[in-house]
Amino acid sequence: MVAGVIGAAGYAGAELVRLLAGHPRVRSLSLGSVSLEGGWIQNVYPNFLEKVSYPLEKPEEVVASSDVVFAALPHGVGEPYAKTCLEKGISFIDLSADFRFDADEETFKAWYGKGYAFAGLRKHSVYGLPELNRDRIKTLAAAGPVIIGNPGCYPTGASLGIFPALATGLAAAGTIIVNSASGVTGAGREPQKASHFSECSDSMSPYKVGAHRHCPEISRNIRNMAELFGREAPPLVFTPHLAPMNRGILSTIYIPLADEWQAARADSVSTPRPPSGEIEAKALEIREVYAAFYKDEPFARVLPQGVMASTGRLRQSNFCDISVNLDQGGSMLIVVTAIDNMMKGAAGQAIHNMNIIMGFDETDGIGAIPALF
Amino acid sequence: MVAGVIGAAGYAGAELVRLLAGHPRVRSLSLGSVSLEGGWIQNVYPNFLEKVSYPLEKPEEVVASSDVVFAALPHGVGEPYAKTCLEKGISFIDLSADFRFDADEETFKAWYGKGYAFAGLRKHSVYGLPELNRDRIKTLAAAGPVIIGNPGCYPTGASLGIFPALATGLAAAGTIIVNSASGVTGAGREPQKASHFSECSDSMSPYKVGAHRHCPEISRNIRNMAELFGREAPPLVFTPHLAPMNRGILSTIYIPLADEWQAARADSVSTPRPPSGEIEAKALEIREVYAAFYKDEPFARVLPQGVMASTGRLRQSNFCDISVNLDQGGSMLIVVTAIDNMMKGAAGQAIHNMNIIMGFDETDGIGAIPALF
Amino acid sequence: MVAGVIGAAGYAGAELVRLLAGHPRVRSLSLGSVSLEGGWIQNVYPNFLEKVSYPLEKPEEVVASSDVVFAALPHGVGEPYAKTCLEKGISFIDLSADFRFDADEETFKAWYGKGYAFAGLRKHSVYGLPELNRDRIKTLAAAGPVIIGNPGCYPTGASLGIFPALATGLAAAGTIIVNSASGVTGAGREPQKASHFSECSDSMSPYKVGAHRHCPEISRNIRNMAELFGREAPPLVFTPHLAPMNRGILSTIYIPLADEWQAARADSVSTPRPPSGEIEAKALEIREVYAAFYKDEPFARVLPQGVMASTGRLRQSNFCDISVNLDQGGSMLIVVTAIDNMMKGAAGQAIHNMNIIMGFDETDGIGAIPALF
Amino acid sequence: MVAGVIGAAGYAGAELVRLLAGHPRVRSLSLGSVSLEGGWIQNVYPNFLEKVSYPLEKPEEVVASSDVVFAALPHGVGEPYAKTCLEKGISFIDLSADFRFDADEETFKAWYGKGYAFAGLRKHSVYGLPELNRDRIKTLAAAGPVIIGNPGCYPTGASLGIFPALATGLAAAGTIIVNSASGVTGAGREPQKASHFSECSDSMSPYKVGAHRHCPEISRNIRNMAELFGREAPPLVFTPHLAPMNRGILSTIYIPLADEWQAARADSVSTPRPPSGEIEAKALEIREVYAAFYKDEPFARVLPQGVMASTGRLRQSNFCDISVNLDQGGSMLIVVTAIDNMMKGAAGQAIHNMNIIMGFDETDGIGAIPALF
User: Fold this and answer.
1) At residue C148, what are phi and psi to the nearest 5 degrees?
2) Is A292 in CB contact (< 8 Å) with chain C?
């Protein structure tokens, strides 16, 4: 099989190249780049020297020569290629936001500033979060070529930390808060002030507080999962931060617990006390709920109690690590998830989607053992 | 004046030495260390060579030769020195937790595992957060020698972000969530797995979720400030994280807004929309409330709207930077504070307390312009 | 095949586990740890959870159940296991220094402080730098079980940068200087002051100047390669540094050029001038000499002219990247090599040795495409 | 006194602002920026908020309103301002390369690509390395306004490590090698690929090998110092590297020792041995030569034997730390110097020059105690 990558010269594109070049079911690649057309991928990324060697061609040529096409393009420019792929009869896996909102063009327009070029394509598209939509992806793929709206990085880690609480009724109706910290690769390959080493190293800060495009995506995922289980979707507050590291997103998620899941408070004192045995037992019980929810998922790893999710333990892995905790008062569930933003948060998940569409083993090409450093 | 430092060989102690050696009202230092007694501070910290040169003596000798004593000791061992200082008639500024809980020995015991050695000392002690207790510090100091319970690092940044909302009625009764990330100097000088470079660099993770000793301290500060203004204290959830940087604590604080302060939601759609002009106006209005609250404080810096608090902009400064934001729904106040954990979070604040006690200019010795990198 | 790892709980051991667990010719592992015996590897390194699960057993049990044994132990304690392996008829790949000096016990003793336990084992041992000793490794392995003295991390990167210059007569008789910077994983898993984040992050410094144990190892490699080609071995100066990064060693190597290889100086001016076209042409010519020397080596990657060796481009790869440069005067060859110290500098090279001994494809299990970040 | 800074919005300019705003002899500042004219310095660098507040004006206005002018401009554009300053009768301290090469326009042209605009200005200019040229600076300043060619960052650390060896005859005639690693602030404020966090963090690499503009500057310094003491100047090889840190340059300098200074080799073995007592004694002896050479210098700090120069120990200090070592063979002097590239390597040294010209105490405004982290 030939896998095509449009936008191969960006960070997500190059990560796709790395993974696809080692994928057991992919025979060769076809790479496209508008800005670097005419060059070679191994000259743009010398880490590929002597391992991966492909010219960077026009996107149209990539579509023509591929059996599946990945697009790692800016938002709002890839729809024509999606259309051509469908017409040619091959699937299109889009890492931009263009297909993440399905038919809800209004929300897309509100956050991304322009409408859909070919709105009708959404009849063939599905939001590619396997833990939410695996069945829809499979059903659609069984019927013909499909367009995947590959999820955003923050929404992936946030949603996986919230889903079990929604599905099982752990979550009360109160606002869910997602506090996330991302590594700098999330800012992409283009140098800019925010990702200039001297500005961001050895420092932490938030950005786009109350105004990040991934907020409506997480919110929509919450609503969809809640609907699946006949529950009401709680409101969401989301704050992204930039952390001085390369890969990884850590999301600390605060979910008010439904009354029946709260551990009894030590109400006689108003000042917090260290967690009681009862609280620890309740946390463990909730951890088991999470583990049961994800028991068949290859990439959602619910950690043993006491092991905290840590981005450094996941580099270059497609896992989403999940640790389940309670606050000392017993009424707030604190779920912490970690992903590699370039893997489960981008290229790895895109290949997961390809594996599902193509009927490959879901872990093909993305099953690497997480490295130590 | 001679300033004494017990525990001078630890990180907080050495930062005290650096600051006191440059303090315009301090003539000389007297340094103590139990573990390194007999050595010299400039051999332990070669950055001091040719600038600071003092022997490390027994704590008793430091008390005997000083006009004020700072203690940067482990929790639970400094009370005898505090007692001796009072008897000698000099003030004692304690960077441990021993005097942070005033007469509430039960809470101290619950979190630190042992009771007070000399409970009666609390008649002479005060929690040294100037923005909360300046008047009490001054009153007590006017009456004789005083013991300062210098605040913990997380509680300083968290409390300063919450106080104006409590004092002015911005905060509703709902749970306040403090999500903090600390640099690794907060872990102190003793090598350990969590602060081993290969384990913590290029990585983020939480620790002691729902179980950190600074939780009851923040909670008590909230209660005290609420009481001052006749309001009810909201519950608190606090989660600390370790970030791959040296200095700094960033605290992202979620405060549910009282109804009258909420910006109108765009209720017709359930999916979040980018912040409206009304929300931006409301955020600016709340920012002015914060700025007014701190207008006479030398170290609380409320940032202009749109400038985000960032730990990298505060290194070696005693400022607490505060940025004020609203979520896109208009009902949650998101305050972000940044401090240098070794300065406003430890040694700088301790010297601020000394300045207040001694009647010096409050910024003496701790007024450095924040460096760029 | 069962691969055994003694000392599996250290960093090099755990990296061996990660690689061997993904090795296509290894059926299962047997892991040993003295200090953590009774535990499980995935509890010591939670990155292994759901991917690798083995108990940590006594070293003797590992030897008993394995078909080949890797030892990642401190220097001077592994010889008895090597002896047992030979007696049992299986090969022993030692990552300590115990077998790096062959029969030269004097040098070993001078630098490591103790003599050999079983000196006679050196009849069956070989220094496992494939680019130097592949034939000897194969010959010895053909005759029976073999002991590999797996090279030190610095000596690997340094030697590969020097070999072609020695072999081809590029090097004059003058002193070769190796200036190396290592990531902190090289200091191992045990927390200590030098690898404490607050001490080493955002900072560079040298250590053991003129006194590092890898100096005699590099020097001996130089001598052996020079002898192979009937040349005199030049003297060596070696300085290691600690750099604030996790993986990687960058070695900048200064080799005085033999007269016939020098580019003509612009002798009319004593002040340096930018490199002339002639110097650039000569540098390219020498680059071709290097490329030819390594043309059949799977892990020595001579970079195109103008592409500089960079440790960040090699993370988790077994490549040694080599860039070839001339100083602006045309008389000094400046070779820069980069390796991942845990891969080509330790575990990767050990598995390369296993592949050679066992007759596997040399890249089996260690052929990963270098990641971008 | 009013101090003017042209190019105040760049990193070196902003560091000048930070230092001058705290300088005891400077009453106020006048700041200029071509690209950000009309803005305010505290909006460009929010770390200055509430501490430093100045508009960014046209360079001509800065010259008109100042008593001394610093220029932190790109190479080749500042000469007209220097000319105007001289005409106005005030001194001009230039942080670009324009005045570093004195009358040697040929060398400047060869490396910087253009000639001098007003060559005659060099009659009034002096290379501002106080440890080399203090007397000339003072003599020139006594006669009227002066132009300072403030040294490059690498040349400062490199030259200070070499000078004592040249002056005292320690150095033989052989090539001196300077291997330097710089923090990323050295690349300036403009985002670019080399300083993009994802490209340079957690990684080391060299750049401009054999082709860096600071090579002729170091070489000229060597020649000038050698001439002062009637010695021959040895050739130079210089290699810069980029290290993943903010501030700091570490230079490891290899100086072949004159025969009479060599410690006796252990000639009976060709393989290196750990340093003998004789070598350690000789290293200490040479350390005393260095200490004596710099005994009156306020910013050259020769470290005690066994303490290694480390950039992390010098952040925001104007010191140049120097450690003196011998290789294990006793014939190569290995001097390691560390500076803060923004201080002694740029803005700090510029202010040192101002202090000398103006007759202030040389440490005024730049005497901060080095911080711990």
Assistant:
1) -105, 125
2) no
**What are the chain C neighbours of B192 within 8 Å (beta carbons)?**
191
Structure tokens at B200: 């913590």
CA distance A226 to A165: 10
pTM of the model: 0.98
Looking at chain B from residue 311 to 330, which residues have their Cβ under 8 Å from any Cβ of chain A? Answer: 311-313, 315, 323, 325-329
Of C11, C196, C246, the CB nearest to B195: C196
Paired tokens of A55? 């010219």
User: Is D197 in contact with A184 (CB distance < 8 Å)?
Assistant: yes
Q: Is A200 on the interface with D (CB under 8 A)?
A: yes
Q: Which amino acid is at C164?
A: P
Helices and strands in chain D, H and E counts: 11, 14
Q: Report the distance separating Cα C15 and Cα C20, nearest Å.
A: 8
Residue B40: phi and psi, rounded to 5, are -125, 145
Q: Mind listing the pLDDT tens digit for each residue in B255-297?
A: 999 999 998 765 545 789 999 999 999 999 999 999 999 999 9
Round to whole Å and give the CA distance between A308 and A324. 8
The H-or-E segment that residue A214 falls in is: helix A214-228
Are the Cβ atoms of A334 and B237 closer than 8 angstroms? yes
CA distance D226 to D229: 5
Q: Are residues C359 and C138 in contact, defined by beta-carbon separation less than 8 angstroms? A: no
Beta bridge partners of D125: D147
E strand map for C33-73: 56-57, 68-71
Mutation target among B207, B214, B271 for the A interface, most CBs of A within 10 A: B271
Q: What order of strands is seen across the sheet that includes strand B147-149?
A: B56-57, B28-32, B2-6, B68-71, B91-94, B147-149, B125-127
Contact: B372, D11; criterion CB under 8 Å: yes
Tokens of C152: 């030190």
Q: Which tokens sit at B104? A: 């509430």
Q: What are phi and psi of C195, to 5 degrees?
A: -110, 10
The reply to whether residue A369 touches residue C18, judged by beta carbons under 8 angstroms, is yes
Contact A246 D191 (CB under 8 A): no
CA distance to partner chain C, nearest, from residue D165 (Å): 18
Pick the residue from chain B with its C-alpha nearest to C203: B246
d(CA C47, CA B246): 25
A215 classed as catalytic: no
Nearest-Cα residue of chain A relative to residue B326: A210
Token code pair at residue D216: 């002729």
CB atoms within 10 A of CB B190: 11
Distance (Å, rounded) from C-alpha D10 to C-alpha A150? 40
Confidence band of D268 (pLDDT split at 50, 70, 90) = very low
Q: What is the pLDDT of residues C330-366, one digit of tens each?
A: 999 999 999 999 999 999 999 999 999 999 999 999 9
Give the pair of three-digit tokens for residue D280. 């350690």
